[in-house]
């Protein structure tokens, strides 16, 4: 009894290292408070009437066998939707669970459910159902009002004594919905998973462990702004790679092949925090731009551009994070970028570019927003050379706006805005203005199907487009009025490589496309 009380007392202040087995006896209590943790090098046992509770943010790691139940309490800060995942195994949810934790109800449906990948929809619990929580699976929950706790009671999952110890999740994968295709906003291949342990796991280690079956990104839910944030795995010393996936946290992944993900027990760690910040291991400041858009609501959307060594102007595995397209929700406000080379129309919330030649790179910026909205775009630039400024070009209005601590871009939309072609991001030492346009604005040309080629970046005026096959034969000759993003209908063509040539008063550009 004295040992248990001593552990409870110390847990309030610091980490506990249990060098031997830990057994919590009947009719005794052990509570681990937020920011505290327990390491058990041997076996853990909680007897049948013992009360072992870990508060939100606490953690326990057991290297030996695990016997008996613990309770993990996860704080839900508002009456918003949250993605959660059970950090224990063996519990079910039913009407009583919904009532106990004040979850929202709508008729016969309750605000706790799983995600169905094949239909991009939610399967919420119906009145009278009793369903099991499954380790490694993510769940969508929402309280009816205010903040409160959600508890999970069961055994600590995993067994290091088994081969490939850890928790597995079988991915849903549809090969016709490749991550590189233009169907990024369909639900196919999005899978809702979660941290199955009562300890933290690192985003970078999770992605490394499962690189063969998923894209190198996870997507977490930002309840404050009601949007999904990407966390890519290879941008070291950034909040993305070092993102701590908390006990009880659910998140999305996108499958790139059939198979399963595995979350090894060895990936567990304790998040050491003082005042919410790890003061021992400081993150190096990277050169980056965070673009933020607001339409007058209380919600912000953002995208990030990092400037790094050893990356290219095109796609770099583990350094680009797609804009989230699952979750069964439509997003009427978003901001994103597209690649400077080999652009295939994929929208990225995170893009990485070389940390040189800032003035030679112009980034296509996409915005989705509704007509009548007053949109404001601002930027936070970090660690740029003192002479480099950030400008947003608006091709429709023919303006350049410097984005800094005292200036941002604002406009009222006369029509819906959807896609790239209007806005471009410049990093330069020049003072840009109308008539002082850099000559390296990118024009993106790519196929969206066998029947269509999309030309992005010709904002106005008449342009001529010609298409040649690999033998140099002209197979298409037409013209269009630039609108920022133009679709050109193709004739029936054989599969192969083609050259697209676009001419207007500003010059000529040639791009290679592949028709499959």
Task: Give the mean pLDDT.
Answer: 84
Apparent shape: elongated
The total domain count is 4
Largest sheet: 6 strands, mixed
| Helical amount | under 10%
Number of strands: 44
Number of helical stretches of at least 4 residues: 3
Low-confidence regions: 1-14, 160-164, 178-187, 274-283, 434-439
Distance between the amino and carboxyl termini? 71 Å
Description:
This protein is mainly beta and 516 residues long. The chain has 4 domains: 1-68, no CATH class; 73-284, no CATH class; 287-428, no CATH class; 444-515, Immunoglobulin-like (Sandwich), CATH 2.60.40. It is built from 3 helices and 44 strands. It has a 6-stranded mixed β-sheet with strand order 29-31-28-27-33-36, with no helix packed on it. Strands 10, 12, 13, 14 and 16 form a 5-stranded antiparallel β-sheet that branches. A hairpin with a 4-residue loop joins strand 13 and strand 14. The model is unreliable at 1-14, 160-164, 178-187, 274-283 and 434-439 (pLDDT under 50).
């Amino acid at each position: 009894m004295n040992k248990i009380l001593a552990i409870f007392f110390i847990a309030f202040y610091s980490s506990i290292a249990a060098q031997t087995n830990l057994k919590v006896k009947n009719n005794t209590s052990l509570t681990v408070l937020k920011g505290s943790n327990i390491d058990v090098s041997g076996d853990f046992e909680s007897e049948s009437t013992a009360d072992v509770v870990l508060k939100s943010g606490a953690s326990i790691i057991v290297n030996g066998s695990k016997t008996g139940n613990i309770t993990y309490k996860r704080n839900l800060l508002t009456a918003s939707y949250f993605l959660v995942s059970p950090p224990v195994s063996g519990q079910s949810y039913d009407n009583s669970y919904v009532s106990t934790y004040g979850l929202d109800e709508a008729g016969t449906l309750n605000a706790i459910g799983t995600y169905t990948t094949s239909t991009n929809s939610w399967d919420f619990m119906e009145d009278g159902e009793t369903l099991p929580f499954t380790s490694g699976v993510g769940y969508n929950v929402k309280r009816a009002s205010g903040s409160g706790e959600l508890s999970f009671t069961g055994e600590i999952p995993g067994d290091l004594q088994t081969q490939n110890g850890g928790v597995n999740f079988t991915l849903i994968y549809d090969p016709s919905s490749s991550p590189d295709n233009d169907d990024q906003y369909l639900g196919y291949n999005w899978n809702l998973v979660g941290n199955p342990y009562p300890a933290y796991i690192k985003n970078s280690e999770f992605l490394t462990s499962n690189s063969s079956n998923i894209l190198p990104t996870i997507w977490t839910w930002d309840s404050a702004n009601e949007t999904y944030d990407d966390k890519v795995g290879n941008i070291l010393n950034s909040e993305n790679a070092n993102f701590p996936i908390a006990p009880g946290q659910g998140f999305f992944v996108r499958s790139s092949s059939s198979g399963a993900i595995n979350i090894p027990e060895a990936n567990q760690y304790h998040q050491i925090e003082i005042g919410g910040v790890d003061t021992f291991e400081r993150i190096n400041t990277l050169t980056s731009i965070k673009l933020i858009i607001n339409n007058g609501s209380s919600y912000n959307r953002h995208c990030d551009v990092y400037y790094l060594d050893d990356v290219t102007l095109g796609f770099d595995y583990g350094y680009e994070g797609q804009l989230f397209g699952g979750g069964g929700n439509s997003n009427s406000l978003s901001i994103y970028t597209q690649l400077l080379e080999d652009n295939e129309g994929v929208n990225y919330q995170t893009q990485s570019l070389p940390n040189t030649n800032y003035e030679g790179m112009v980034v296509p910026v996409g915005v989705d927003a509704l007509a009548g909205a007053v949109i404001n775009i601002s930027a936070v630039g970090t660690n740029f050379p003192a002479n480099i400024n950030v400008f947003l070009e608006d091709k429709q209005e023919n303006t350049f706006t410097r984005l800094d601590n005292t200036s941002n871009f604002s406009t009222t939309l006369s029509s819906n805005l959807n896609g790239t072609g209007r806005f471009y991001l410049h990093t330069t030492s020049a003072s840009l203005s109308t008539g002082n346009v850099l000559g390296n604005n990118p024009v993106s040309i790519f196929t969206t199907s066998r029947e269509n080629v999309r030309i992005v970046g010709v904002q106005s005026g008449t342009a001529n487009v010609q298409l040649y096959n690999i033998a140099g034969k002209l197979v298409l000759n037409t013209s269009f009025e630039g609108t920022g993003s133009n679709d050109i209908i193709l004739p029936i063509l054989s599969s192969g490589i083609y050259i697209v040539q676009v001419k207007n008063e500003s010059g000529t550009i040639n791009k290679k496309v592949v028709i499959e």
